[in-house]
């Protein structure tokens, strides 16, 4: 098995933490992982992306020219990467912030998830990344949901461990909403 994802958004949305969490969960499951973060010079508001490749066997380069799965958290990321999704691939969109009407892709599956709205309803907009991870895992099965819960203690600094239950709730909610959108 091999899965790959490009997660893209702006600084402050937790893109790199989302990729890091996926990586820890996959490692905990005994899988091989390549994690490649990239971000602009700004701390908040600049471009932030990461690729995560998870495989049972050898993992090569983390560079994805045509990702099988793209998770976009903001409009600029859709404009930059939307056309690069491999035909037959999956695009998971933060429909709270992203308008897909101009994309014109009928060769991929597009799942809109109102990630910002969900995170806000759960009490903290900063959990948009956890909603995204939950949606991604529910739609792809890249790792087990339980592995994400366990990996949070590795991905989050110890001072933030008190937020693990809230993050687990955000992951679960993102997963539920994504599944319901796929079935609709």
From TrEMBL:
Which GO MF terms does the UniProt record name? Answer: oxidoreductase activity, acting on the aldehyde or oxo group of donors, iron-sulfur protein as acceptor
Pyruvate/ketoisovalerate oxidoreductase catalytic domain mapped to chain residues: 11-176
Q: Which InterPro entries match?
A: 2-oxoglutarate_synth_KorC, PorC_KorC, Pyrv/ketoisovalerate_OxRed_cat, Pyrv_flavodox_OxRed_cen
Instruction: Print the keywords alphabetically.
Output: Oxidoreductase
Pfam families, per database record:
POR
What is the name of the protein in this document? 2-oxoacid:ferredoxin oxidoreductase subunit gamma
> What is the organism field in this record?
Geomonas terrae
